[in-house]
């Protein structure tokens, strides 16, 4: 009779799941499948249908993980799109509402030529020629910088 490895007992397994993901990944699934194949009864092996079903499940899991990874990359690429969209404002003259930093109330209007576009905390900001930073929500008017020509 074969001796059972003590590390395979459930009480020997790591029980702290607080820091790890509670879902099974494709590596976990493959380990389970390999362990099942290694420990199956040689006189009553796994049926072909069962094996094909498990391999199909593994293939589906892998495809879902690939799709999830692709969607994550797509989402990251889309987060930079607003910066590119507003980059056409560089060199344009903008009229913007000044906002008091303490009260959040409008204090007047200013004009400036946009020098740069950036994104901070999910908000698009324009840097005008005097160095001030303006959120796009504060923009009241956009015009050509040399409209007097």
Automatic annotation (TrEMBL):
Pfam family for this entry, one: FLgD_tudor
UniProt cross-references to InterPro entries, sorted A to Z: FlgD (IPR005648), FLgD_Tudor (IPR025963)
Domain (FlgD Tudor-like): residue spans on this chain: 87-139
Domain of life, per lineage: Bacteria
Keywords: Bacterial flagellum biogenesis, Cell projection, Cilium, Flagellum
Similarity field: Belongs to the FlgD family.
Name of the protein this chain belongs to: Flagellar hook assembly protein FlgD
Organism: Thalassobacillus hwangdonensis
Gene behind the chain: flgD
